[in-house]
Amino acid sequence: MRKIAYFMHIDWGWIKQRPHFLAEELQRYYNLNLFYIKNFKNKGLTQNKGFNPSFVIYKFPFSSRFKIIHLLEIVFNYFKNKRLYSSEYDTLWITSPLILQFVNLDKVPKSTKVIYDCMDDMLAFPQSSKTSKYMGDLEEKLINRSDFVFVSSKTLGEKLNKRGVIKNLYVVNNGIGIIETQLLKQFKPSKEYFNIFYFGTIAGWFDFEILLKILNSQSDVIFTLVGPCETAMPFHPRLKFLGPVNHSDLFNCVQNADAFIMPFKVNELVLSVDPVKVYEYLFFNKPCIIVKYPETIKFEKYVYLYSSYDELHQIILDLIINPVNKTAEKEITDFLQQNTWKKRAETIVRIMEEKV
Fold first, then answer.
1. β 3-8/31-39 pair status
2. How many CB atoms lie within 10 A of CB 163?
3. Rounded Cα distance, 89 and 78, in Å
4. What are the residue ranges in the chain where pLDDT is below 70?
5. Nearest CA-CA partner of 348 in 110, 174, 179
6. In this predicted model, what pLDDT tens digit does every residue of 124-146 receive, in sequence order?
7. Residue 96: helix, strand or coil by DSSP?
8. What is the pTM assigned to this prediction?
9. Which residues contact 23 (CB under 8 A, 6 or more apart)?
């Protein structure tokens, strides 16, 4: 059985994302040791079940600013990372160029196949020009050493192709976890407000401005946000923030939702995102309101897309009167069953067995 060192840049206790789901699925096929980076600055972590990480790599506070702290960080993690420089693993799976801060690819045996699974455009995050160049250098090194590359979206694949990935580049979209034969039964509580939910990370790409504009024009609307927050949260009495919850607890948490929303600013970073949350929103069998850009057009049959405040406002007004899904439950179920993380893993395994 192939042995994989699966190295993810996200804390295992962070809100579940692509690296978490793929690790859980790939362990069904391979002997997989999970390495993940724990950042002491992260707060509001959850208890993600389904996998026992093998090795925790610690990110020290201020290690990027002070050389002495960075050296201590290297020494502290040395014996865990040393395993990667032996012939113990057939494959090294890397989820971000950030991991090269901890792993020296020059020491990884030539016989070890390196896979870069790219879920975000790391160069498009808000950062200084110095940091952007540093990230670009790390990604270039990773691309040059990778035997092949998976990307989460077509747009991201086009960007990496321009950055030097000429061959063995595969688009494997995001997906959804366990899907039953039917969607969750709709639950429509009787209440004064129309409650629109968002769950996921809240950061600089989150369009608070458009939400506040809706709240100021619609006194019968509430927005409820669930997930870790990495940016300043504006105050409004009908903007509710619940913080992060365990992924398994989302089912109970969203029972009071009348609809879901993905209110992102369409910037360079977001343009490359294949949003996991849209797949998950659909499973809850309630109307979904999603900002429109090339990677969300494939959901157009199943969700309400908007490109402006006026379009968003009209969608909400219509749903308050008639809160229904855009298409039939069976069509949504069929779509989701073809887009599970299990299906994504099957695709990856097929490629790996052919290419690695």
1. parallel
2. 13
3. 17
4. 40-52, 178-190, 247-248, 355-356
5. 174
6. 988 888 888 999 999 999 999 99
7. coil
8. 0.85
9. 6, 8, 32, 34, 51
